[in-house]
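Quick entry, no commentary yet.
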Amino acid sequence: MSPDFLAPGSVRSAAEVNEQIRALWLRAGGSLSTQEREEYELLVVEWAAAIRDEVIAAA
C-alpha cells in the first residue's frame, strides 16, 4: 500500500476501513508479518482520519 493511498479526505468510511482491518487480522491468523504490520499501520491512520471526518461532519 503506497502513501498516496492515504490522500487527505479519505472517501472510505471508518466502517469500511475497520472491515479491512478486521479482514487483515483474520487472514494473518492473529500474527502480522512485517508487510502486514505496515499495511495495518496505514489502515489505522486512515481509520482515525475517517473517524475524525465523521465526527466533524456530525457536529
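second:
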Amino acid sequence: MIKKEKVVLAFSGGLDTSIILKWLQKEKNLEVVTFTADIGQGKEIKDAKEKAKKLGVKNIFVEDLKDEFVKDFVFPMFRANALYEGFYLLGTSIARPLIAKKQLDIAKKVNANFVAHGSTGKGNDQIRFELSYYANNPKIQVIAPWREWSLKSRKDLISYAQKSKIPIPQKKLEDPPYSMDANLLHTSYEGKVLEDPWKEPEEKMFTRTNSCEQAPDKPTFLTLEFKQGDPISINGEKFKPSRILEQLNKIGGKNGVGRIDIVENRFIGMKSRGVYETPGGQILLVARRAMESITLDKSAAHLKDELMPKYAELIYNGFWFSPEREMLQSLIDKSQKMVSGFVKLKIYKGNIIIQGRKSQNSLYSSEMATFEEDLVYNQGDAEGFIKLNALRLKLLKKRG
C-alpha cells in the first residue's frame, strides 16, 4: 500500500475548513493533519478538536499561543502605534504570521510537504498566510482550495457537506448575516448584510462590547504602567501579556470602547467594509501615545509617526517576515527604551480620557513650559530663531 502524503491544515472547525478537510482527503488523496491555534478565540478551540476527530483525523494539534501572540506579535506592533488607513488596529492581520509559522513547525515535525488554509481568493488572508509560509520555508507546497475547487457559494458548501456526511449544526444551515473572525485582540465582521456600506450593523451582532447607550453610567478608572513601551501592570497589579490584554478587553468592552466601522482597501485592490471590536487595543493605543508624549524626543516621535503608515501597511499586506518590517521594528524598539512610566485613564461610554501621565524618563519641564516668570528660558532668544526661519520665506516673496 502506497503511503499517502501529508498536508497540515489550519483548522478552525467551522463549515469552510471542515469541508476543506474532507476535500483534501477525497479529492487530493492526502492524509490531513489539523492545526488549531488558540489565540483567544474561545469555545471554538474545543469544538475544532472534536470536529477533527469525527472527520477521521489522527494527528490533531492544538496549541495555546495566547501569550506568544500578545508578547511577540501584538505588543511589538503596538510599539509602532500601528493603524492601517487611520483606523484599523490590524487584529486579523497580526494573527496570520504566527499561525503560519507554527503550521510550518508542525509540517516539519510530521514530515508533511503540503500546508493548506481556508482563505478565499478574494481576501487578504490568503496573501498573509502564503507570504508567511514562503518566507519561512521556500520549498513548502501550498494548497488553497478556494482557488481550486468548483464550490462557489454557501449553498454549494452545504450540499458538499451533506453528500460527504459532514455534521452541520442546525444554526449553520441558516444563512448567517456576516462572517466573523476572533482572537484576543479583536473580533471582525464582514460580508452579507455588511456589504452595503450604508446599512448600519445590528446591535445584536456585537459580541465583546456594549453600545455607548448600554455602558455603565459611572466611569471606570485605571492606571497603566509601561516598561520600554509595553504595558506591564493595571492599577498596580502586574500581569503577563495575554492577561493584560484580556483585562483591558473587559474594561473597554463593558464601557463601550473599541468599535469601528470602516471601508478599507484590500491589498488585492478592492474595497471592503469591515466592522471591528478592539476594546483593549483601543485603550492601549491611547495610553501608549500619552506615555510617549512625555518620554519621546520631538523628532523621534515625529519620525515614528511618519514611518507608522508604512509599517502598518506591511503588516496588513502580509509582510511580517520581510526584512523591511524587521528593519523598521529595530528602529521602533530603539525608540521605546525610555517609554516607561504611568498613565491614568477614565473610561466612560466609549471614551478613553487621559487624566495624567508621569515617568522618571520624562522630557517635560514645567520650568520651561510655564507661562509664569522663569529663570531658564530667555524669551528674547525667540526673535533670532524666528528671523532665521523666516529668511527663505522673505526671499521667496521678494522674488515674486
